[in-house]
């Protein structure tokens, strides 16, 4: 990254933060204080993980010297069937255990079904609601929020109550303005759109740029994008739908 300077050689600020230029030309304000706090938090987490690992290794030392884990497990099961005064019929104990297991499994299945329903409702509210309320989608994209969700919705997951996006390589999308922190919804959508090969067909006219952007082709500046028949046929179904939904035209 390079620090952006004005004509007098002074650092350019945005919202009180110095602006840096990334390799792809994107200008991003850098929150140094937030980054320091993130590094401190990550160091604390690393210490906690290390201490947990050391505690687990200490606990495992109690099992050193056991050559046959399966035999040890069998011995423990046998001891669990012993009464203090007499040996109870293991077969009867197994029957009781099976009945208890069936009842427990039925309750577990019911709980999992209910949890799955709640999880689906939570996903629809957090993810679907985020798409419909997105300021970036409303201002920058030429297609409605439901079509954006149909294309990029699978990239979002709800984890520990938080909305997290993953890129095409299965990696979490992190914020450029808040290094070390997960990108918020609009920043994640913007990143996914930037990575989309046909992004110029879903961006509004003012947002399309670069050599791959569509031009108006003599439309008199009316904002509609025009594609030749061969260009339109080369698009995937999603791209064709997005072009038509955005009011684009196809010329022969």
TrEMBL record:
<dbReference type="Pfam" id="PF20356">
    <property type="entry name" value="DUF6651"/>
</dbReference>
<feature type="domain" description="DUF6651">
    <location>
        <begin position="113"/>
        <end position="216"/>
    </location>
</feature>
<feature type="region of interest" description="Disordered">
    <location>
        <begin position="202"/>
        <end position="252"/>
    </location>
</feature>
<feature type="compositionally biased region" description="Gly residues">
    <location>
        <begin position="207"/>
        <end position="223"/>
    </location>
</feature>
<protein>
    <recommendedName>
        <fullName>DUF6651 domain-containing protein</fullName>
    </recommendedName>
</protein>
<dbReference type="InterPro" id="IPR046593">
    <property type="entry name" value="DUF6651"/>
</dbReference>
